[in-house]
Amino acid sequence: MDIQTVTYMANDYDEAIAYFTQKWDFVLLQDEVQVEYDRRFILLAPTKQATMKLLIKQAKTPDEKALVGRQAGEDVFLFLQTNDFDAEYARLKEKGVIFLKEPEVKPYGTVTIIEDLYGNKWDFIGN
């Protein structure tokens, strides 16, 4: 088995799509209206070949809205890995991505924490 998709709560579909595609260079894999469910089905991923995908869900209820930006509470929500940390770090920094700390070299690679547009924290790890 493999985890294929993770739901990502957003305030707005288009805002989330723009952020991830323009700032992080994610790929929009699917964007279709599902009238029967009163929603859009939006899948984003770091690359077309990525195994893990983000399913963007626009928060509608008060409970869903409370999760936006707090999907893992105060902890890191997701881990983003790269094979070229220095190049990716420089590219993301140039695009205005928010880093919460300076990169640190650990036994498993270089790591820092990214804050996304809603405040979720992501570990950014690479070699």
UniProtKB/TrEMBL annotation:
<dbReference type="Pfam" id="PF00903">
    <property type="entry name" value="Glyoxalase"/>
</dbReference>
<dbReference type="InterPro" id="IPR037523">
    <property type="entry name" value="VOC_core"/>
</dbReference>
<dbReference type="InterPro" id="IPR029068">
    <property type="entry name" value="Glyas_Bleomycin-R_OHBP_Dase"/>
</dbReference>
<feature type="domain" description="VOC">
    <location>
        <begin position="2"/>
        <end position="127"/>
    </location>
</feature>
<dbReference type="InterPro" id="IPR004360">
    <property type="entry name" value="Glyas_Fos-R_dOase_dom"/>
</dbReference>
<protein>
    <recommendedName>
        <fullName>VOC domain-containing protein</fullName>
    </recommendedName>
</protein>
